[in-house]
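Replying to the earlier thread about multi-chain prediction with a worked example.

Input:
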Amino acid sequence: MGMRLVSYIGSKAIGFLADIGGVAILLKEILFNLPRLFKNFHLTTEQMVFIGVNSLPLIIFVSIFTGAVSSVQAAYQFHNYVPMRYLGTAVGKAVVIELGPVLTALVVSGRVGAAIAAELGTMKVTEQIDALETLAIDPIHYLVVPRFIAGITMLPILVLFSDLVAILGALVVAVVFVDVSAHTFLSGLKMFFHLSDLFAGLFKALIFGGIITTIGCYQGFKTTGGAEGVGTSTTRAVVISSVLILVADYVIASFLFG
Amino acid sequence: MIEIVDLHKSFGDNKVLDGVNLTISKGETTTIIGRSGVGKSVLLKHIIGLVKPDEGKILIDGEDITLCKNEKLVELRQRFGMLFQGSALFDSMTVQENVGLGLREHTKLPEEEIREIVREKLRLVGLSGVENSKPAELSGGMKKRVGLARAIAMSPEYILYDEPTTGLDPIMADAINYLIIRMKNELNITSIAVTHDIVSAYKISNRIAMIYEGKIIFVGTPEEVKNTDDPIVRQFVEGRATGIIKAV
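Result:
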């Protein structure tokens, strides 16, 4: 029993280290392939549409309610302690630095990370990736780099939309339900607004975009078996990228604001 | 000419190839037969550099593909075409895009010329009017034909066939056999097929090699296979469950 437990923990640890090594090698190959980015650039624009444009309705929907709930929650906590003119400040800071980038990344991870892992995983188990190689086409160049570039460029753009819509949602709730005037909310928003906060949020989004696409591609490429393997890879892609987003969020916050 | 020299490959504790030696002559069709799971497809994937061996060499006209990387590997692979067991068509692309992908990636031919080559290759495998269809709209036999058209699109010197007739009805299987023979005769392509379909092996092969327990145990013409006294080869070609090869 004891030996089996040690063996189980050991194999999990080796698997974990192998995954770290695998992702590092994949990142190295992505960087190695970047100079050839503009060959087949249509593949990157297709991915930009898929990751960016097609995610926009969902991001807008989620962001409206994110802004709305932060307005309600902040107002509840301010009640009798903090003047309501700071409502816009608190909501703006929370959305731009934290909620916009993280929630957008988690939603995109569920939508895009899963789709990438499922698509590449299916290609792997049906030998389509082998077929690409037999046609002397590098799968990293053809499949991974376009997704990676689309991820790191589209996530910051999605976050910009998310920030804007969330603040609008918060404003509407503040005016209609919390009884704070639009002028008060907006002057609070502007009072402590720093452009560096916005850039910090966008930098986070860029890193999150890299995490989502790299993990999705890595899980897709290491898929084995049939439909079950694709399902496992898809789940792992979403879970691992979600965890890494939160870890990276902390690490970046420590560097930028610590 | 392809020379496979003392090839070894293991996956974990499972030793799949245990010193494979085989020479494939130019212009011939060599078929590798053996039970499912003995490493036939793994051997084929070694030949085109999809799998790296633990030991051994694969010489393509004297060049060891197991040592090739980057540009050299790309250059060597362009001399090959491969038909996969499940066709492995790119399901997000149309037939036309599938067949023309190699040409679009590796040549500077104008689009109209590529489309004409694609039409010609599809005609060669007996298909027309399916250029704009997606793989999901095609039958198994049609997918194999499209896969074959894609394999020959770059006019390769060598074609590798991985179980070309598996999963097809006998009539369609024979049509694929006929196409393989036609590729060799009309395009002078050197072919290597792996299959456990002995009827197909007899029809398409100049030579048949049998793989058993990680080694090539027999090489001969179809006539020599039919007349051999080797008990393992006899059991396999006669399809008997009893004998040296265990049915597990």
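Residues 45-257 of chain A form one domain.

Feel free to reuse this layout for your own posts.
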